[in-house]
Amino acid sequence: MRSRKPFIIFWPQYFEAKRSRSNGRRLPKKFASEKVSLEDISMAAKNLGYNAQIERGYKYSRTWWDDTGRVLIDTKGKKKSKVMLEVAKEIRKLHTKV
Fold this sequence. Notes:
The protein is α+β, with helices and mostly antiparallel strands. It has helices at residues 38-47, 80-97; strands at residues 7-10, 51-55, 70-74.
């Protein structure tokens, strides 16, 4: 198993507004978005200046039937919760532009 030391895992389920907290959402609904993809998370992280890598083929344990994948983000020492809010706000900006 390779080391992911500077990276923290972010799953698309963390950002989806239609999910309940028990099904994986980690943000308040006012920050969550509809249909968040790996590319959305990666693009938002890169816009904020973080290094992000997409890993396909991984399954979130609470929804093992969905083959969503995950995004690894180098948070540069920041807490996961702070970075998650920043990324969520950036995803909302990206969705409103389209």
